[in-house]
Amino acid sequence: MPVETGNRGLFLDLVGTLVKMDETRQLPLSPNGEIVIELMPNVVEKLAPIRNHLIFVVSNQAGIKRGRLRAEAVEAAMRELDERLGDILTGWQICPHDESDCCECRKPRSGMITELAQIYGVDLPTSTMVGDQEVDAQAAHAAGVGRFVYAKDFFGWTESV
Ligand SMILES: [Mg+2]
Ligand SMILES: [Zn+2]
Fold first, then answer.
1. 28 burial via Cβ count (<10 Å: 0-12, 13-18, 19+)
2. pLDDT tens digits for 29-45?
3. Which pTM value belongs to this model?
4. Which architecture characterizes domain 9-154 according to CATH?
């Protein structure tokens, strides 16, 4: 997609927002160590009709730093996710660090959002972030994203899933 300015962005958290988490709040792994992508309810239905926003995923994956996951496996999982969502993602950013790295990308910091905004000419004040945790709201605020919506409200989950 060509870089334009003034695009509205829809920034989405990954785990607990688009895909289910395991009991440690991380991406679930199969017994042979492969990432298991299981979509949360209503995700495809809600995102498929969206035409007026560029859609991105921003995800902390400290499991890469800690040796639980390989960065290449996360990238492959993101491509699988995009395919299952109907090829709607414009891009994504994965933070492979943990707290000790003091990076600019790990949420609640703003680096992943501002990087995507710069690459794709996104207008952050008219953009929206959706996530399931306070760090998502904090990252959106730090980046200057105009609106934050909790995933349960955005996707209409009426009971815990
Ligand atoms: Mg999450
Ligand atoms: Zn990082």
1. middle
2. 999 999 999 999 999 99
3. 0.94
4. 3-Layer(aba) Sandwich (3.40)
